Amino acid sequence: MPDAASRLTTLLEQLLETPLPVRVRAWDGSEAGPPGAPTLVVRNRRALRRLLFKPGELGLARAWVAGDLTVEGDLYTALALMSGLIWERGEDARSLGDILRDPAARAAVRGLVKLAGPPLPPAPPPEEVRRPGHLHTRRSDRRAISHHYDVGNDFYGLVLGPSMVYSCAYWPAPGPDATLEQAQYDKLELISRKLALKPGQRLLDVGCGWGSMAMHAAREHGVSVVGVTLSQEQAAYANKRVADEGLTDKVEIRVQDYRDVTDGPYDAISSIGMAEHVGAARYLDYASDLHALLKHGGRLLNHQIGRRPQRAEAEYHVDAFIDAYVFPDGELAPVGTTVTQLERAGFEVRDVESIREHYALTLRRWVANLEADWDRAVRLTSPGRARVWRLYMAASALAFERNRIGVNQVLAVKTPGSGASGMPLRARTWGAPDA
Questions:
Q1: Residue 390: CA atoms inside 13 Å, Cβ hemisphere, count?
Q2: H or E element: which one contains 119?
């Protein structure tokens, strides 16, 4: 009888109608596949059962998070080689139903079922979130934010580094002398310049995280800042940082839903990596709420991940792995949808800048931080949670590099009826003091 790796490889290639681009090592120690390629290690038959009961990305994610499946060799190379089978099969790829109408494919599935052993569906890993749909109520949003951000400040510090900024950095150029901390400082400064922050102004930082943007704006530009977050852990950490830097007279951090902020008007609003959590059903309300909180002539900087549009599909998209393990209720839309919704809310969109490549560089630095202190990361969270983050960040880095997703800074103005936007004639002179 063929060894498990050879049998598994043959059946998968028969089902997928293409050679596997990676090597396979099975639970019996046998190996098959191209020599020198990264190795997909199938540690037990349970991994197969997870894939059979949840074909596709979610089944793979469950096997990875549970430790039933792992990769030996460079993770980025392995993901890049497998991306054509998982994420990039294209709009014309056959559906599972179409595949199973093929007698050869049905035979391959029967062979996989036999190889997988007793047909009992394994329970999902405890790190998986299960909830009744994308509600985006205040309560469901609090739970979603808590799942992602209340993992532990020490864990985030390990991954993000001293800047504690959990969004795309702004890199001068890739190279050994470019530090993550400087790139994050440059991103916060870029946003401050786009918002034209000046002493005496009021800034609302929506989804303020651990307070980095709020502190930067107060320290470097002399503005008064209100930062709001739904995470208790983030707020506690941010308030301590604010106190340690002597900025309590300039920065207020609240545990508050942005929908409950009523003390406008503000001169400027920053929303950095927060709008992905809003959801399709609530996005126009989100944009309208921020519009109402700005004074006439005030600016909004909306820094948001977007995805590439596809033919004949919904405007918003939910990724199965990310929805279950990373960002519950997160929904990505093309940048054109975001701009349209902001304009529908009354904003005048004045500038859109894509910084897609910058996020790939940022994520690779975060992955390097995680891998360099892996044992501590596991102690701070759990083995499954650490595996979630490693896969999520590495796969996301490749998605940005391959232009499957992007990140955009949209600068919008609450332009008054007079039409005076207050914008400079040469808008991209963000570095100039009078911009």
A1: 26
A2: none
